[in-house]
User: What shape does this take?
Amino acid sequence: MATDRRDPYRSYSFLVEIDGITRAAFRECSGLDTTQSPIEYREGSDPLTVRKLPGLITYSNITLSRGITDDDELWRWRQRAAEGKIERRNGSIVLLDDGGAEKWRWNFREAWPSKWTGPSFNATGGDVAIEQLEIAHEGLSKG
Assistant: This one.
């Protein structure tokens, strides 16, 4: 009997889109998660157990890591935020299969850069200079 085998997608092939601008040169993307903490509640007439009600939904910040290049658009976006000029943008993290076709898309909304981390330097090393951008957002959905 034949089985329908479905191999998982690999994590190395993804794109980042922010308001329609595609950036494919990211080394790492993390923070695609959502949490809804339970609220414990008990009324005086309830049995000796608590009820667990759904609480507020929270989203972790998305962290993007990449090698520094001449493309400084994300740096300028963060600088404007640091100056109090918050520009909220929508975006997507797109997972690709081995052939480069889009397989999954996570959309985030109302995002703005909350933190930028520059590279660590070491004169004896040959590593690529890596920058990180942390993006706060107000929602994550599968597109």
Q: What stands out?
A: Strands lie at 14-18, 21-23, 26-30, 34-41, 51-59, 62-67, 89-96, 102-117, 130-136, 140-142. The radius of gyration is 20 Å.
